[in-house]
Amino acid sequence: MSIIDISEVNPGSHVTLHYRLSLADGTELVNTFSERPATLMLGAGQLAPPLEDILLGLKVGHHSTFQLAQGVAFGQRNPDLIQRVSLATLRENGMVGDDFNPGDLVEFNAPDGGRFAGVLKEVNETSALFDFNHPLAGQAVAFEVKIIGIL
């Protein structure tokens, strides 16, 4: 039987923390420092895996900012994930009649029963162009964390 050290963040830990995620240019995406801290379970998909990996081994009270190069936090942009979807397919998914505009995030049913999303780029008479990359794919980000508690 192994003993897990709860004085530091481990896989499966419940971590209460403040965090700020911003683009390299300083554009803030998420900031819990001005509100209640977040409590996350590592491995549950609440943060991107590379961000979770940064937390591993940190102790209560740790406060620092990590710079992640382009594509590290949310993967590189993949041109194969920019795809046309026929309006017939959108109809089959019950999406005709919905008012979509370029820039909208649209969720789809996956064949395995899950869900996935794409950003609508354009619509024409027969199809719609979607970008299924994560919206932050290919971006450099700064990830500031302050660990408040670990369970």
From TrEMBL:
EC number assigned by the record: 5.2.1.8
Listed Pfam families: FKBP_C
Membrane-crossing residue ranges in chain numbering: none
Enzyme class per UniProt: isomerase
The UniProt record lists the keyword Isomerase: yes
Protein family per UniProt: Belongs to the FKBP-type PPIase family.
Protein name: Peptidyl-prolyl cis-trans isomerase
Source organism (scientific name): Paraburkholderia dinghuensis
Species classification: Bacteria, Pseudomonadati, Pseudomonadota, Betaproteobacteria, Burkholderiales
